[in-house]
Amino acid sequence: MKTILKLAVRLMTARKSRTILSIAGVSIGFSLLIAATVLIATLEHANTSIVKEKYGDYDLVVGYQSAESFITPHIVHKIQHLDDVEKTTPFLYPYIGKEHSFQDEMALQPMYIGVKDEQLAREHQLTKLSSGRLPKRGEVVIPYSLSKAENLHIGSKLQFPFPPQRPQEVRVSGILKKDQALQSIVLFDFRWLGDATGQINHTTTLLIKLTDAKQKQHIIKQLKEIDSDFYIDPQSMKDKEQDQMGGLKPVVSGLGVVIVFGSMLLFLSTLQMSIQERKREFSVLRLIGAQKKQLIWIILYQSVIMNVISGMIGLLGGMVLSIVLKSTVAQISGIMIQKLAIHWGAVFGNTLLAIALTIMVSVLPAVGAGNQSPLQAYRASYDIRKQRLLSVITSGVALALSMSITFCNYVYIHSPKLYLLAVGLLILSVLLGLSLFIKNTILVLMNVFSALFSSYGKLIGRNAVRQLRRSTQIVGIVLLGIMVCIVGTGILTVVKNGTEKSIQDQYPLSHVISSNSAYDERGLSPEFYDRIDSIPHVEAVPVFKSIAAYTQGLDMNRVKKDDKLMTYTINGRQEVMIGVEGVDFQRMSQSLPLHVVEGTTDLNDNHVVITQYTAKLLGYKIGSMINVIEDTAVSFTKNELTVNEKQKMKKSARFKVVGIIKTLPLSDPEDMGVYVSPSFMKKRFSVDTLDEVHYKVTSKAFEDQVEKTVQDVTTNEPSSKIILFNLQEELNQLSRQFNQRFSILIVTVSLICFLSFIGLMNSMASSLRERVSEFATLRALGTNARRIVQITVAEGMVLTFTGGLLGAVFGTIILNQLLLALDYHKLTISWPFVSLALLVSPVIGFLATLSPALSLRKRPILQDLSKE
Question: Does the record bear Transmembrane helix in its keywords (predicted)?
């Protein structure tokens, strides 16, 4: 083995330039992998701190949403002693929910919350203070808006009611942060509030911090075993933001895998070049008695040595690259990075894994070289026709199946999984038939080469085909880069454009004030809308809260069959659920486009307007009568829905269709509802509050002034749930996310192209070194040195252009298959990137081949002719 190792080292040092280039190329791939590992860990660490600051450093909230239920001290003690529970802190909501007995007394009061002055309690967003401290006995923390409105400060005294106990005077100990979510709450000391409200030892919710967040689901299961009625907030938004890093982690990780795959292809190409160059040496070794396994070990030793060196250089280079890219990554991600977080276990583990994988890909060419007969080893060219018949057949079958599945699925089945299967089959076809695809593409292009280079065109094509064995992986790297670019940019662009359109359709007036209230809760008051609408330079549209109702006596013979339509059996009849909503069509039409298909939108008492979609689906037309009953009058008994006869008259209505509109602005195009006048909605169903107020600023010059006024109006509205939505801010955030992912994608593709550049330079240098006698013969027959350089440079350009062309074709097909899986049915071709691919790919070939080609000009003809 020692002799074999020495021989492997000697064979490597005999071609120092090729070995150095190979190590450099693979080292770049390893450096990128290590840099990605370090930077992802750094982003995770920084993002974790941001997420903890945003959501608090706790893992679960468990308890009830009603004042009638509470966690007893015994249950609290039991939860505290569960495995993996580090610490807990209690919260008391004495007047939460709708079932407590003091709704009238507390209707105009802020939400009372009892907290303990503990570190874990300070992690909750409801306890964030702008000044002061958390309350002790007889103290209160008040909202920022209340302190400004009433000119209150630390030490001020207020009186609050505490039914069923007497009112008490308390001292202000702190002021909450200026936050919409904190506008309508006050904080008291936990034990003192329990005494003041007669709820001693009551705990409404318990904040839980775990020793290991990975055990969250196990703890949730144990909590459900304690009480199945527990409401548990698993902090899923926090976990999602922490895991996905704003969506960057899966993108960076996926592209990191692509880079490693490209590095493996580069190394495989390098190894095959080495084997190709050493054919005759290997044949001589075989003839003098060397065994097959000894040749295999020589090649494997080369692989191990080169990969270990590449791994060491890549480890060092990755650390340096991490330091260099730290600020750039922070700028792209929008996450502030103070210092690198290096997890050495992951760094060394990924390095060893990459080395192991790259060594593994060298096994097949090593075994192939060992099994080759000495006579075969003397053959200098590679005949693509000798490619394994099974691979060719499998590739063709996979391609045919991919196209057939895509077509049939598009026409008949419409299953996203089948589109993904088609993508997998197409990728398999490309992997198995890459050499065949490259050869046939070059042969098709040979006519073009002949037109450009006269009689040398066919020579260029034949030389490119002859060298496919050593160049297939290089062309594959170019193809990989172009495919990733086209598929990635195509999907990112379609998703961005679709999301933008969806947001713009949903919020056409650019600003929204949402009540953020549940279905059965009161929303914003009509007076609130009047105050918004009265602001100068504002056009506002109200969106009233709706009720869910069931049809009564629906004629199912007129109902159109539709998979999306769900029916319910009520008192033995098939009915459907629809929404009933008050709409001010006159006000809406002043600010939004309203297309009336038939009839009118002028509504009297029991007149309704429906959408064209509802009319077609349920068979309604102008003059049709619609009978409905509110969902609260329908109950589920004995496995079927039945109408409560006592509430039937009170909660049912009969409508007449007087108008049909194309769609209702601010609503889903397939929203199935009936729209009545707001006055009738109030009179018949006692619903007169608003779910949302949409508005736009008619003059940009007054935007800041309007926003300030809206903030003031919102602050005075007695609700802690109000959410303000700004369309432009949402679109800006979407654009930032797109730019982040696009930047990462372009950097990755650029690095893949650089790998192909190194590989092709290495490949062409080796190939030209083998064919010096051929070029010397051409020069002896009268071909000048300049033409020789042109031929060799054109050969490299042909190879990379072929990779670019195939990448554009297959990338476009895969892009459209994936878009079909995402239910996007418009043919998409990324013309800018397809054009760029076709222009850049031959440039890579030109630059990579130029230096080796120029070296031919200086070679002595007679010396080269004396070679075989």
Answer: yes
